[in-house]
Amino acid sequence: MADLDSLSYTPAYPGPNDDVLEAQARVCTGPHQTRPLGVNPSDFPQPAPILEIVLKSITGELPTSDAASAAQMGAFFAAMTLRAYFPEATQWSPAEAAAFRKYHSALTEQLPPEIQYLMNPEQGYVPANATEAVVVNALEKILRAKHLSYTETREMCEAILSDAVNPALKGAALIGQRMNRETYQEVQGYLDAFFAPEAVQPIDVAALTHFGQPYDGATRYFRPTLFVAAVRAALGEASLLHSVDAMPPKNGVTEETILKALGANTHLSLPQTASLITDASVGFGYISQREYCRAAYDLRELRVHIKKRPPWAATEKAQQFFSARESNYMVLGYYHIGYEKPLLQLAWERGCDAAVAIKGEEGTSHYALRLGKPSTPAPARNENARMAVNYSQGFQRVDGAREDFAMDIDPAVYGLDYARSPRPEVVSAKAFAELGVAALSGEKGHIYDRILLNTAMVDYLLGICPEPAEALARTRSVIDSGRALEHLRAYLRESHRV
Q1: DSSP string, 335-381
Q2: β-pairing verdict for 327-333 and 322-323
Q3: Does 120 have pLDDT greater than 50?
Q4: Strands 322-323, 201-202: parallel, antiparallel or unpaired by DSSP?
């Protein structure tokens, strides 16, 4: 796994303070998930010490490495304000109320105006510039548990991507939106702020599949997407992958780190990526967020300081960069139940001919090699229903109409009978690169089976291949013949030539 401290940038913020991060983990969450501080005397952290840390950070009594950052304070105080609109069980505890009474004078006298505003929105705040005013206007709604329009969300996100907004206000806006649970208009606004629909470029291939995985990578299970793309290329199905080299909170193994371990050039522009996809000897491409939206990539440290994933952690998986001549597809991974619906709607509105959202391992679209307990059947499903790993939902566009489907994918049905879903002995980009190449070289085992299952089931659910048995057979054929490995090697070679 990548270590955030090893990434090539200079920290923009002090800290973060670990105790304040722990407090954020408890209070910067949803109406029913928030855990008030100090409910029991033995709980950690207690609210009074957290406020003491904040005050000492403001006065410079803590070393920079231990200080709470402005982004942390913004997230924490926005959360405390928003909890007034939460159910009684997740509102302030008596200990929280007592701590704020105790330190009221010090907080009022010492905290900067933007933090005081987050504590008490009624007092107002004068933005430093027009860009910051966009975020403050959005916070006027967010801090009162109200939602934004599509335009307001997109403009706020674009402002947050700039350097013109105080980090406390950035942290407050992002955590506030997450705690309010984003509407579809807000989800759409975040997506389009990163890469606008009008920026999608036509590409000279008949069909193209965008694969959207969590950008923070894998820390437990093999990540097969890159090798699935090579197999699909050998089958004549073009794919586009997108991710980063490392992203908090997990800083796990990503497609980019695997490509780098294999010796590929991972600094390709969108036109260069398009040329690899249209090259028949390659047939797939990878684009880094560093290349398509540098401002978003540069906010990865902010993601550490706000503790929770920002609202765009889900929507960035649904980015579309190119459109094919005839058919466009999207494959999306998710973990938290509820995100699959807006992700699929985004794909539908972008004009995809088919899309599938998969509750895969570690929030990816990757099927586990054992189903486990089946998902709750659709007629009995409610907000507490269990949707297991391998649960797949999607649509196909048939004569202009949307036909939805939902099902579990059970590997045992297809002859892949595992007692549990295996994990690799070593989790690293180098290890994954070696395992994937060995599988594409014909080495049988659970890595081979993962690539086989994920390739075949995706092509089946997208409607590219009408029957699972046929999809499995043709996938085995291009792996065992070495054709898939040829496409991977062509990518590694041509990535340095484009």
Answers
A1: -STTSHHHHHHHHHHTT-SEEEEEE-GGGSSPPPS---SPPPPGGG-
A2: unpaired
A3: yes
A4: parallel
CA-CA distance, 326 to 205, in Å (whole number)?
8
Which H helix or E strand runs over 230? Answer: helix 225-234
Tell me how far apart the alpha carbons of residues 176 and 139 are, in angstroms, rounded to a whole number. Answer: 8
* Phi, then psi, of 53 in degrees rounded to 5: -65, -45
Using CA of residue 335, residue 338, residue 344, residue 346, what is the dihedral sign?
negative
Distance CA 161, CA 194 (A): 9
CB 165 within 8 A of CB 135: yes
Euclidean distance between CA atoms 280 and 248, whole angstroms: 35
Q: Given pLDDT bands bounded at 50, 70 and 90, which one contains residue 59?
A: very high
Instruction: Enter the tokens of residue 487.
Output: 């496409």
pLDDT of residue 4: 35
Q: How confident is the model at residue 248 (pLDDT cuts 50, 70, 90)?
A: confident
Report which residue type is found at 133.
A
Distant-in-sequence, close-in-space partners of 347: CB < 8 Å, separation ≥ 6: 318, 330, 332, 355, 395
CB atoms within 10 A of CB 182: 22
With helix as H, strand as E and coil as C, how does 425-462 read? CCCCHHHHHHHHHHHHCCCCCHHHHHHHHHHHHHHHHC
445: its two tokens: 């085992």
pLDDT tens for residues 176-187?
999 999 999 999
**Residue type at 117?**
Y
Inter-CA distances, 35 with 78, 85, 102, Å: 15, 15, 21
Could you give all domains of the chain from N- to C-terminal order, each with its CATH number? 16-181 (no CATH), 200-494 (3.40.1030.10)
Neighbour tally for 419: CB within 10 Å = 7
* Mean pLDDT, residues 397-421: 96
Q: Is 361 exposed, middle or buried (0-12, 13-18, 19+ CB in 10 A)?
A: buried
Give the CA radius of gyration of the chain: 24
Q: How far apart are CA 28 and CA 13, in angstroms?
A: 19
